[in-house]
Amino acid sequence: MNTTLFIIFTLLMSFTHIACAEPVENDFGIVNAWYNGQEAMVENINLKIGEPAEITVSIISKIDCNVYLELTNPLVTKPYEIISGPSEFNELIQNRGIKSGWSKNYTWIIKPNDKWVNGNAPINIFVEFSDRGDDRHEEFTIVNPYILNEQYSGPAPTTTDPSSTDQPPSQGSPGFGVVGALMGIMLVVGYWSGKS
User: Fold this and answer.
1) pTM
2) What does the pLDDT read at residue 123?
3) pLDDT of 154
4) Which of 53, 99, 139, 140 shows a CA-CA span of 20 to 30 A to 72?
5) What is the rounded CA–CA span in Å between residue 30 and residue 172?
6) Does domain 24-161 have CATH number 2.60.40.10?
């Protein structure tokens, strides 16, 4: 019976992780993000001082509107430097008069500086779809790295661009989803209960 519980637990955790990696979507648009090619939210990351990392954000508009976005960090101390990218942290990027179906990817290469160490420093994305005062906001944490008090001496990481693959970024629920996973687990539990 312990093996059955282990399998059920493993399945539940797998499908819960898949569901958490979905893009964020509302009536006006879709937002997705990656940290070094891993779909947000990425967990259990340690970064050293000076260690580069890639942040990519993909936005798709479902309506004619304005789209605003900011790569943000909530700390008063500025723990990162932008090596390259379309903006600095907490600097608004404005896309006015865009059409339904518009999409764009933004990529930043960041690195921790020595101003914040031995603690977490989240990297968030804020996106606003604005239609003449009717606004939809999406904000979430892409990654929450722990900044080590160590200097990075290795090479830059291999970067991946989700838009360069043959398949577009995920835009909806996975085929099986959390509800399907839970139903499957209930069937397995019911089956094994009936055999006892």
Assistant:
1) 0.69
2) 97
3) 84
4) 99
5) 9
6) yes
Residue 158 CB contacts under 8 Å (≥ 6 apart), including other chains: none
Query: In the 8-state DSSP scheme, what is residue 167?
Result: S
Whether omega before 186 lies within 30 degrees of 0, making that bond cis, reads no
What angle is formed at CA 178 by the lines to CA 174 and CA 183, rounded to 5 degrees? 120
Q: How many residues does the chain have?
A: 196
Residue type, 36: N
Give the C-alpha separation, 142 to 151, whole Å: 23
pLDDT at res. 26: 95
Domain ranges of the chain: 24-161
pLDDT mean by block of 10 residues, the chain; 196 residues: 45 39 88 97 96 98 97 95 97 97 98 96 97 93 97 71 40 36 47 52
CA-based nearest residue to 136, from 126, 146, 125: 126
CB 167 within 8 A of CB 102: no
Residue 10, pLDDT score: 40
Residue pair 103/61 in contact by the 8 Å Cβ criterion: yes
Q: Provide the 10 A C-beta neighbour count for residue 128.
A: 19
